[in-house]
Amino acid sequence: MLTVMGGxxxxxxVALIGGISGSVLQALRVFILLWGVMLAATTWxxxxxxxxxxxxxxxxxxxxxxxxxxxxxxxALWIGRPPRPPPEPVEEDDYDGYHR
Length: 100
Prior knowledge:
Elements: H1 2-21, H2 24-48, H3 54-80
């Protein structure tokens, strides 16, 4: 749970920096890479230094990566979507005499 919360804090910080610099979409892409590297480093430290087995913690690490990364990916899709075209105005001259 703390891992997921930490991911959301980092996601907010990266999105804020991206908003200030003008490229939120690129910042969200960088977040996914940065978050994966950070979790890989903490997993490596936990296995080698704290004597916790990898199989004991892989579910926690996978969920800790997946939830913030999925939110960042969905935000990137939402921000990067093309804008909707405006509706075409209906002109009065298009009337052909039939009503529905």
